[in-house]
Design goal:
- The protein has 106 residues and is mainly alpha-helical.
- The chain has one domain.
- It contains 4 helices and 2 strands, in the order βααβαα.
């Protein structure tokens, strides 16, 4: 599998592990075009896991910050319907923890 950048594939360490496992079972490997990482070597896998750990941490911190900002906005608004919606979105950020579930909006 060839991708442009690692974070375009996934930012979740568990998702990446599943993808690599599937690729291994098919006899394929993961290669990034702009970043010199390759899952055919143990050093490449280690480097990818470290980078994805930081990406996952960054995403979780961003979700917490966004939930806090949405709660502040909900407290500041005067419209009750808007307040409920903002709090519901903030709750989804908190509940998911790792990413915003866009399917919940539909």
């Amino acid at each position: 599998m060839v991708v442009y950048k690692i974070d375009r594939l996934t930012r979740s360490l568990t998702d990446f592990a599943k993808i690599v496992e599937i690729l291994d079972s098919k006899g394929a490997s993961f290669v990034s075009v702009t970043q010199q990482f390759n899952t055919t070597t143990s050093m490449g896998r280690l480097t990818l896991n470290i980078l994805l750990s930081f990406a996952q941490f960054e995403r979780e911190v961003n979700c917490r910050e966004m939930a806090g900002k949405l709660r502040e906005l909900a407290r500041a608004t005067r419209l009750a319907g808007m307040r409920r919606e903002l709090l519901a979105v903030a709750e989804r950020y908190d509940r998911r923890g790792d990413h915003f579930d866009r399917r919940a909006d539909r």
